[in-house]
Structures are given as C-alpha cells and as structure tokens.
Amino acid sequence: MRIAIAGATGNIGALTTAALERDGHDVVRISRSLGVDLVTGEGLDAALAGVDAVVDAVNGQGGTREETVAYFAATTRNLLAAEERAGVRHHVLLSIVGVHRVTGNAHYAGKREQERLVEAGPVPYTIVPATQFHDFAAMVASWTEQDGVAPIAPLLVQPIAPADVAEVLAEIALGDPKGRYADVAGPEPQDLVDMARRTHQARGREVKLVPTWSGLFGTEMAGNVLLPGDGARLAPTTFEEWLAGQR
Predict the structure, then answer these.
(1) With b meaning 16 or more CB within 10 Å and e meaning fewer, what string describes 49-66?
(2) Angle at 224 between CA 218 and CA 229, to 5 degrees
(3) From what superkingdom does this record's organism come (predicted)?
(4) Tell me, what's the pLDDT at 60?
C-alpha cells in the first residue's frame, strides 16, 4: 500500500514509517522540513497522489489554548480536504487516552478539536487513543528543571513504548476504518515521579524531583483519569524493558 505519514520526522512518525517500510509498503513522508506545510496546505495535493491511507502523528507546537486549537484545526482541515481530493480511503489519527476528561490542558483541547474535525469530516477514519509514552516522565521534568530541581505532577499513567504505538498505527493503517479504536496502553500503571527518577538514574543524571500539582498539570489529571478504559489493547513492552535501553 501507499501510505502517507503526517509528522514523519517526529518520533512516532519516524517509527511508523520504519515499521511500514520494513513490511514493504510505500511511505510518503509529510513534514514542513520536507516541503509540505500542513498549516498552509502547500505541497499536500502532490504528496497525497495515489495514497491509500494517511496516518496523522503530527505533534503540537505549544502556545496558548487558542493557538494550539487553531494549529490542530488548520492542519486537520487541510489534511482532510486534500485527502478527499486525492481519494484517500482511510485517515488514522493518533490521539490521547483521557483527552475528553481533561478540560484545562491546551494540548488536550487541541486534540479534542482534531478528533471533532475527523469525526465530522469526509474521509473514513480510525481514531487511536494512546497513553503517554515511556519517555514522557523525563521529558516533563526537563520542561521545568532549573538548577537540578524539577517540579513534577504525581500523575498515574500506564505508559507505552513509542515503538509499540508505531506498530499499532501501521497495522491499523493497513486495515479498514474502525471509527474510535480501543484505548492503547502499556502493560502496567506507573507513577510519573518514579518514572522520571528511574529514567534519570538510567541516564546517569542527578535531578531532585519535587511532586506538586501547582505546575503544568493540575488535579483534574489525578487518579485514574489518564488510565486506559475497559477493553483496552495492551502493548507488550514494559517500562523496565524500555528503561534497559536508556542505560
């Protein structure tokens, strides 16, 4: 099959590309750095010529809630319109578990708008909600770290290996549209603070972690909010197995 990956130069996009090419599929990489601009639509029609399915693994650019929603709205509208013109048969969107249970987060607001547009759009779709990735904890700590100290929210998550997410996206892109797919998660829950501590340790870094709800993530994300729902698809790679590769 000929499959386009939006956000192909990002972590998940690159891994999904590799998984599809490994199995002999023709992959079209969509990225601003490769000459295709999702915000303006420049280069999209040419990129999607002859494409059977599109995987949208585009990441947000940060900013305010309004800016984030506007970014995801623009990229999604342009992508769907170009897909309709090209006769693309399947749009696969990578989303986030719990995105409809968290209202105060700008990125989640953008993802909700993205989902809404896909559900109302002209192209048959599959929305794949995934939990946070195994590298999420250390990344979050890096956002707030100053002088070796990093405030971090004590979130309960069920992290998944990025490579496992890519395998699921590749598999789904090759099949028929399924609407909203089951939650996709790693095999077991973890505490974000402990994950960050162990990741830093594996990488030989000393960072003092300060658990707090006064930072980037508020108490609306506490408890089971970010955990997968019933009937979730559990990927095989544990956090410990991923961590072994960080040493």
Answers:
(1) eebbbbbbbbebeeeeee
(2) 130
(3) Bacteria
(4) 81
User: Residue 214: what pLDDT?
Assistant: 87
pTM: 0.95
Instruction: Please list, in sequence order, all residues whose beta carbon lies within 8 angstroms of the beta carbon of residue 87, skipping any fewer than 6 positions away.
Output: none
> What's the pLDDT score for residue 63?
85
Q: Which residue from 49, 52, 48 is spatially nearest to 79, judged by alpha carbons?
A: 48
Q: Which pLDDT tens digit goes with each residue over 217-227?
A: 989 999 999 99
- Determine which helix (DSSP H) or strand (DSSP E) holds 130, and give its type and residue range: strand 125-130
Instruction: Report strand pairing: 190-191 vs 156-157.
Output: antiparallel
* Biggest alpha carbon–alpha carbon distance for the chain: 53
What are the start-end ranges of the E strands in 62-120? 90-96
Residues 6+ apart with CB under 8 A from 146: none
Q: Give the Cα separation of 102 and 176 in Å (integer).
A: 30
3-state SS class at 126: strand
Low-confidence residues in the chain, pLDDT < 50: none
Rounded to 5°, the CA angle 101-124-62 comes to 45
| Residue whose entry in the numeric block shows the structure tokens 């999702």 | 38
Q: Is the dihedral of CA 118, 155, 60, 71 positive or negative?
A: positive
Indicate the DSSP class of residue 236.
S
Query: CA distances (Å), 168 to each of 53, 56, 130, 153, 173, in order?
Result: 14, 13, 10, 28, 9
pLDDT, residue 109, reads 95
187-207 burial: b if 16+ Cβ within 10 Å, else e: bebbebbebbbbbbeeeeeeb
